[in-house]
Amino acid sequence: MRKREQSGSGPLSGEGHDDADPPATMAIGPRVLRTGLHSAVGLCLVVALVHVAVVFLAVAPSNSFSRRYGQQINAWVYPLFEQNWRLFAPNPDSFNRQILARTARTAPDGSMRVSPWLDLTAVDRAAVKHHVFPSHTAQNLLRRAWSSYVDTHGADDTARSERAAMMQTYLSNVAVDRVAGHDKGRRFDFIQLRVITRPVAAPGARVVNRPPTPVENRLLPWWKVTVHGK
After folding, report:
1. Which of 70, 71, 73 is nearest to 82 (CA)?
2. Does pTM surpass 0.70?
């Protein structure tokens, strides 16, 4: 019995192999993870550098490079990365704008069923009022969408450039999302906006019960909806 125990402790028993090198497959895992991490970091750095360079070209004075690649620069910057200098030289609005929307759906008999007007501005104000940390989208998304639309369209609401068409689609999508979020389950094929612009009362002016007389009551054309109308 003693001989068997002694023979079992020899090289064939597995003892003495603790210090052996690990298999090659065990070393591949950390190497692959390290390579993937380095690649991801490098890709993030490249994207960040490209983004900074494109945004710089968008806000820099016009030059030969920005004029040559203006279409590509605008496609990257607008509408999500738009930059301006209002942080350093703010230009507060002197008008209050009330944006309303209504929808329409084609009935089985071919007639149009039009909904009442929904005050989108009032919905956003209700989402901000009494909130300690109000949403940025409720404060600025609709307002900035309308400002961008006005900057790219004339009084006849005709898009004469690719950016103008993009701003029109952007404004339409924002309004559609607002209406769909307020009236869940309602299906519609078209949407129309009305924008009422009133002047901001001067400091110290007499407060009256009725709002100031509108300086503009702009009715936009009907726009086809492709998301919530099907």
Report:
1. 73
2. no
